[in-house]
Write a structure and sequence with these properties.
The structure is a single chain. This protein is of the alpha/beta class and 344 residues long. It has 2 domains: 214 residues, Spore Coat Polysaccharide Biosynthesis Protein SpsA, Chain A; 112 residues. 45% of the residues lie in helices and 18% in strands. Strands 1, 2, 3, 4, 5, 6, 7, 8, 9 and 10 form a 10-stranded mixed sheet that branches. Helix 10 runs antiparallel to helix 11.
Length: 344
């Protein structure tokens, strides 16, 4: 079922695969008359085999002017985002995963800013929400990764992105972006692959001129979902997916300035983003049983990174990696032990 919606300021894309346990929480968060007037919710049913499609259809039938379903073959999270970019009709674009949800009052603030500011990107806050199986979401413990995007931020002010790029780190949960930027520049995310959020937040950056900030935590990011891909066991199992994303990011970075026009400040911002992904890769490598072979594999990875992408290598902010490098990897075994202990 596909239907184009007009006069919506925001398209929210909900990539959905076997999410029947969580999807109703996600969709119900939009069911307020004033929100529905401004928001198109595109549920991208990614070949679900459970009751996700039935749940989505309930909302389409109740609110046909705001909810829409697109059913496709399974292609992973990136495929859902790509489908959303192609079909979105709102001026702005936001991704909200099916097991997460939005907070209505904060979303209202975001919508107001989208109408007033006309920034390329609007940044809003998100909370880590720790799901320990309680039936009432109000009992979930919540934590802000960052209480504000940077010290001294002025909310609802239109900034030149380059002016504040050195102060900023933006995740998918923070980002609302003009749909035209994604579509005009053919932003395409790897499909059939985990960990593609970083591609989504990185590839549009060369084309972003302005950014504004909304004071409020719009996005509720659920931690503790069974099978969540950010758990260390899952990251070990899916290390090849992580490597694929990292290589895609390196390929993109190599095109900057030559094939993709990019200011020096945006390039440095992108280097910092990729350095965080590198740190994740090293965390995965350290989480395996410590052996001479694994140590050598890590040293080769680090050598290649330093030789090919020295600026990314030098943007590391991870303390454990800094200690590894300073010790010339003599601290490999104790740090590997500490990583495994932390995530066990």
């Amino acid at each position: 079922m596909e239907k184009r919606m007009k006069d919506k300021i925001l398209t929210v894309v909900v990539p959905t695969y076997n999410a029947e346990k969580y999807l109703r929480d996600n969709l119900e968060a939009f069911v307020y008359e004033d929100i529905l007037l401004d928001v198109e919710i595109l549920i991208i049913n990614d070949g679900s085999k459970d009751k996700s499609l039935d749940i989505a259809m309930e909302y389409v039938q109740r609110y046909p002017d705001s909810f829409n379903i697109i059913t496709k073959e399974n292609g992973g999270h990136g495929s859902g985002i790509n489908c959303g970019i192609h079909n979105a009709s709102g001026k702005y674009f936001k991704v909200v995963d099916a097991d997460d949800w939005v907070e209505a009052d904060a979303l209202r603030k975001l919508l107001q800013s989208l109408k007033q500011m006309d920034s390329d990107v609007v940044y809003s806050g998100f909370l880590w929400v720790f799901d320990q199986g309680q039936e009432d979401k109000k009992l979930f413990k919540k934590k802000a990764e960052m209480s504000q995007p940077f010290i001294g931020v002025i909310y609802k002010q239109n900034y030149d992105f380059d002016e504040i790029a050195d102060k900023l780190y933006m995740k998918m949960h923070n980002m609302t972006i003009k749909t035209d930027i994604l579509r005009k520049h053919h932003i395409f995310i790897d499909e059939n692959c985990y960990y593609v959020d970083t591609e989504y937040i990185t590839y549009p950056i060369p084309y972003v001129k302005t950014i504004s900030f909304v004071d409020g935590f719009v996005y509720m990011y659920r931690i503790g979902s069974q099978g969540q891909s950010v758990g260390i066991d899952k990251m070990q199992q899916n290390e090849k997916n992580y490597d694929k994303v990292l290589q895609s990011l390196f390929n993109f970075y190599a095109q900057l300035e030559s094939d993709v026009p990019c200011s020096n400040k945006k390039k440095k911002y992108i280097e910092r983003i990729i350095a965080r992904v590198v740190a994740g890769k090293i965390k995965i490598m350290l989480s395996f049983p410590a052996t001479k072979g694994k140590k050598r594999e890590l040293q080769i990875f680090e050598y290649n990174l330093r030789e090919r992408y020295p600026n990314i290598y030098n943007e590391n902010i991870n303390k454990a990696i800094a200690v590894l490098r300073k010790s010339r990897y003599l601290m490999y075994y104790p740090i590997s032990f500490a990583v495994k202990r932390r995530f066990s």
